[in-house]
TrEMBL record:
This is Stp1/IreP family PP2C-type Ser/Thr phosphatase. Residues 268-287 are annotated as: Disordered. It comes from the Bacteria. It holds the Pfam family PP2C_2. Residues 3-256 form the PPM-type phosphatase domain. InterPro entries: PP2C (IPR015655), PPM-type-like_dom_sf (IPR036457), PPM-type_phosphatase-like_dom (IPR001932). It comes from Microbulbifer okhotskensis. One of its GO terms (molecular function) is protein serine/threonine phosphatase activity. NCBIfam families: Stp1_PP2C_phos.
Length: 287
């Protein structure tokens, strides 16, 4: 049996250029259950529109996740709980999209608003991530950094088709053009993937105001060396601002740690062995 500990922290910053922060972040870690989440939304849509969109999306998803831990959830099997988590995220995304469309219908000044969304949820050793747009989630542990999301953007499609290199994508004039967003149409499709964690890890969720300046190597260096781990959010914000801060910057960190509680029986001997590294750091469950 393993004792699982989850801790979370988040920060959003207006940056050095923008007059309004159109990012929103929500995070939570239960004091008595191995449950935690981070939600990041990066809004768009002109004066107050982007801020309104990201706030509505983040708060809607937050409300769905806060309503999750009920008696029926605890009485389910592990496999059923994973299905409930997935269904909850799908429902949350659809509800957020509907809330945005309803707001736009009632308030014409918000007609151009929309938002990206990335939501990462941990239940015990089960991690599930939903995303729309170019806000990202990363996982880091002793075996390195893994990007858990793939941008819904014009440049990502061009990279995938071989029209651009990764370096050219960073310099492209359309690098901020996304192909999916909440609040744009009645039908919205989030990519939802899940993993089972096999060792202690850090999860980082962010808006593109951070990845505009910090590539995967820079992100990995911070996550690998900056301690306490939860204070990486301040380092990320500071680094992005120091390098220009042209956009709003948002980052959330979730720290996952697991400790075995297995007790040695009186007739057993304690033997110290060197652990064998697993073939893979995390095991993908759904795609």
């Amino acid at each position: 049996m393993d004792q699982i500990s989850l801790a979370v922290n988040g920060r959003t910053d207006i940056g050095q250029v923008r007059e309004e922060n159109e990012d929103s972040i929500r995070w939570f870690a239960s004091a008595d259950q191995p449950f935690a989440y981070i939600v990041v939304a990066d809004g768009m849509g002109g004066y107050t529109g982007g801020a309104t969109a990201s706030k509505i999306a983040a708060e809607t998803v937050q409300a769905h996740l806060d309503d999750l831990l009920k008696h029926t959830f605890f009485s389910c099997t592990s496999e059923q709980q994973q299905l409930i988590l997935r269904a909850t995220l799908i429902d949350a995304v659809n509800s957020a999209n509907t809330a945005l469309l309803n707001t736009k219908n009632l308030h014409p000044q918000f007609s151009n608003m929309g938002t990206t969304l990335v939501a990462a949820v941990m239940w015990r050793d089960f991690l599930i991530v939903a995303h729309i747009g170019d806000s990202r989630a990363y996982l880091w542990n002793n075996y390195g950094l893994q990007r858990l999301t793939r941008d819904h953007s014009v440049v990502q499609e061009m990279v995938d088709s071989g029209q651009l290199t990764q370096q050219q994508a960073k310099e492209s004039n359309v690098r901020n053009h996304i192909t999916r967003a909440l609040g744009v149409s009645g039908n919205v499709e989030a990519d939802i993937n899940s993993w089972k964690l096999t060792q202690n890890a850090l999860l980082m969720v962010c808006s593109d105001g951070l990845t505009e300046y910090l590539d995967d190597h820079a992100i990995e260096r911070v996550l690998a060396t900056h301690r306490p781990a939860l204070e990486c959010v301040y380092r990320f914000i500071d680094d992005a601002n120091r390098l220009g801060g042209r956009d709003n910057i948002t980052a959330g960190i979730l720290e996952y740690s697991s400790q075995s509680l297995r007790q040695i029986l009186p007739h057993e001997q304690s033997v110290t062995e060197r652990p064998t590294p697993p073939d893979v750091t995390i095991r993908k469950l759904h795609r």
